[in-house]
Write a structure and sequence with these properties.
The chain is an alpha+beta fold and 69 residues long. It has a domain of 42 residues. 12% of the residues lie in helices and 14% in strands. It has a two-stranded antiparallel sheet with strand order 1-2. It is flat and about 45 Å long. It starts with 8 loop residues before the first helix and ends in a 29-residue tail after the last strand.
């Protein structure tokens, strides 16, 4: 516990993929979709429909539509 480093805001962005583009494993493809980045073993337009992609938790969520008044 003595060797733990306190995280600041910039470090959290790197840990959680904030303003930094993630790095994919070798032979994987970086795909931008719905405001997030995903890593997939094959190129695709929609990583949510592709099995085996590493995606963000909220990436495939449908946006909430507001009621027009």
């Amino acid at each position: 516990m003595k060797n733990l480093k306190k995280l600041n805001r910039a470090s959290l962005k790197e840990v959680f993929g904030g303003a930094v583009i993630p790095r994919c494993p070798a032979n994987w493809y970086l795909i931008q979709y719905n405001g997030y980045y995903a890593c997939c073993p094959v190129p695709t337009d929609n990583p949510c429909s592709q099995a085996g992609c590493m995606i963000h938790v909220d990436m495939c969520a449908t946006p909430i539509e507001e009621d027009p008044i």
